[in-house]
Amino acid sequence: MQRSSESTAKHDFVDVFQRSRADILGVVGEVSTPLRVLVVGCGYNYPEVVLWTAAGHEAAGIDIRKAFWRCGLSSLVKDLNADEHNVMVSIVHALLERRRYHGYFVNLGAISKMQVDEECQDLINYSGTDLPFSDNAFDAVCSNAVLEHVADLEGLVGEMHRVTKPSGVNYHLWHNYYSLTGAHVPNGLVSANPWGHLLGDSRFERYNRLTGTYLNKKRPEDVLSALSSKFELVSFHQVDASHRKKGVDSGFMYEGVELLDPPLERRLSEFPRDLLVTRGFLFTGRKKLH
Which of 189, 181, 145 is nearest to 276 (CA)? Predict the structure, then answer.
């Protein structure tokens, strides 16, 4: 079920921003000057960039999308048309997306009780490889539900390491491909065939192709290895849909436990149960100097 703009804004503020800010400041410690924060994969509506800025810090956002909310309808149509190759379809999609986020920033301001400004932000379109920033530019680099979409993960990790200040923090949460919802398909398809993407249901891959959704299908240990090659591990957690950490936050919930009955678990026996029911993972680390 698709979230309303109000529930999306609440999730972005409470679950994403408030938790990540507390975790990052917990590693950085007391600061007397604004942090310089980079949000990788900031998205069309770039909530973390807006909220870090509203909280008095200096934030920049990058995304492979060419259009952000502030760019207007025509820019969004052009961006969508690059994939759709159909102007009318792109216009319809753009109108729907603009409508979806029409009240988003109003809700974000009301829920956060901060002065959010969607216009004056440092937002950059990038190729997905080289980051357009100088060395040691940021105190913190973070991402939310991005790393699962990256083809050259080691390359991106190297770039994030390069732009992070000495002893700076990297904070990355990603959606586990092997979870119930890891295929990034509509809930109806997930309900019709739970973990169908792991059982060979071609509808899952077909949907991803139609929507242009790339998933690298990396296991958590592979992502952890890539990040740990450049960043000294501070913490690594299983997280749920509300970004609560297992063993740390009360109310942590596995995903899809009620659907994983013995017959289905036998069909999925090559995958550890804990992997199948964990929504995502969260890595926090300090830049290694080498």
Answer: 181
Q: Looking at this protein, which amino acid is placed at residue 227?
A: L
Q: What is the DSSP string of 178-205?
A: TSTTTT---HHHHHHSTTGGGTT-HHHH
Q: Structural domain boundaries of the chain?
A: 5-176+213-247+273-287
Which stretches of the chain score pLDDT less than 70?
1-3
Classify the C-alpha dihedral 219-225-231-234 as positive or negative. positive
Cα-atom radius of gyration of the chain, to the nearest Å?
A: 19
Q: What is the pLDDT of residues 57-69, one digit of tens each?
A: 999 999 998 999 9
Q: Which CATH architecture has domain 5-176+213-247+273-287?
A: 3-Layer(aba) Sandwich (3.40)
Q: What angle do CA 261, 263, 265 make, to 5 degrees?
A: 65
Check if the beta carbon of residue 27 is closer than 8 Å to that of residue 234. yes
Report the residue count for the chain: 290
Question: How far separated are the first and last CA of the chain, in Å rounded?
Answer: 46
Here the tokens at position 230 are: 């450049």
**61-99: per-residue pLDDT in tens?**
999 989 999 999 999 999 888 877 789 999 999 999 898
Would you state the torsion angle of the CA atoms of residues 181, 239, 217, 48, taken in this order, to the nearest 10 degrees?
90
Please name every residue paired with 38 in a beta bridge, in sequence order, or none if there are none.
60, 141
